[in-house]
Amino acid sequence: MTIRAVLTDIEGTTTAIAFVKDTLFPFAAAALPGFLAAHGAEPAVAVLLDETRAQAPGQAPEAALLGWMAADAKVGPLKALQGLIWEAGYLDGRLKGHLWPDVAASLRAWAAGGLTLAVYSSGSVPAQKLLFGYSEAGDLTPLFSGYFDTRVGNKREPASYAAIATAMALPAGEILFLSDVVEELDAAAASGLTTCQLVRAGDATVAGTGHPVAADFPAVAAQFALPKA
C-alpha cells in the first residue's frame, strides 16, 4: 500500500531519549518552584493547579507535581505545566530541541514530496511544537499538519491510532507510524497502520519482532519508498 502520511513519535525516534530524560525533565523540575511562585495566580496555571489538587488529594500541588515528575507519570496537568516551563526555556534560548542529525532533512524531503506529517507523543502538543519550533535545525513546525498527545488516548491502545487515522482523514494503512517502542507499534498495527521501529544505536534500543526495523530516517525512506533527503 502506498504511504501517504508519516506519524512520528518523538522520544527515541526523532530525538535522543537522553534529551528528554537528562535535559527537559531536570530543567522542569528545577524551575517548577520558581515558576509556580511567579505564575501560580495566573488563570491558566491556576486551573492546572486545581486539576492537580483533584488528582492528588491531600498533597500540596508542588509536591504532587514533583512526585509525578520523578515517576515520569503521564498526568495531564503535569504535562501542561512542563510545557509552560519548557516554553520559557525555549523562548529565552536556554533550551534547543534535540533532533538526530538525519531527522530534519528527511522530514523536509517527505513534506516536499507530498507526504502528510504528524506527531504523536506522550508529551503535550504545546511541548511538541516547542521542540520542533525551537529545534537545533530551526523551525520545523510548518512541516507538520497534525499534533496528537495522550488526550487522543494511551499510546499502547489501538483505539488511539484509529482516532488519529480518522482525524487525518486517511485509510489507516496509508499512515506509517514510527516509534522505538514495540508496544506502541503493536497497538498501531492492530488498528491497521503501517509500522516501523526505530532502533537508534545512540539510544541502545532493542529491536523487537513483528515490525520492520530501521536505524534512522533514511533507512525508513529506503524501506517504504519515501522521498530521499
Please describe the structure with a list of short key phrases separated by commas or semicolons.
9 helices; globular; 229 residues; 6 strands; alpha/beta; Rossmann fold; Transcription Termination Factor Rho, Rna-binding Domain, Chain A, Domain 1
SSE inventory with pairings:
Layout: E1 5-8, H1 17-39, H2 43-55, H3 61-71, H4 76-91, H5 103-112, E2 116-120, H6 125-133, E3 146-148, H7 158-168, E4 175-179, H8 182-190, E5 194-198, E6 213-214, H9 217-224
Parallel strand pairs: 1-2, 1-4, 2-3, 4-5, 5-6
Structure in words:
The chain has helices spanning 17-39, 43-55, 61-71, 76-91, 103-112, 125-133, 158-168, 182-190, 217-224, and strands at residues 5-8, 116-120, 146-148, 175-179, 194-198, 213-214. It folds into two domains: 5-16 and 98-224, 3-Layer(aba) Sandwich (Rossmann fold); 20-91, Transcription Termination Factor Rho, Rna-binding Domain, Chain A, Domain 1 (Orthogonal Bundle), CATH 1.10.720. The chain contains nine helices and six strands; from the N terminus they run E-H-H-H-H-H-E-H-E-H-E-H-E-E-H. Helix 1 crosses helix 4, helix 4 (76-91) runs parallel beside helix 6 (125-133) and helix 7 (158-168) crosses helix 8 (182-190). With 229 residues, the chain is of the alpha/beta class. A six-stranded parallel beta sheet has the order 3-2-1-4-5-6, with helices on both faces. 48% of the residues lie in helices and 10% in strands.
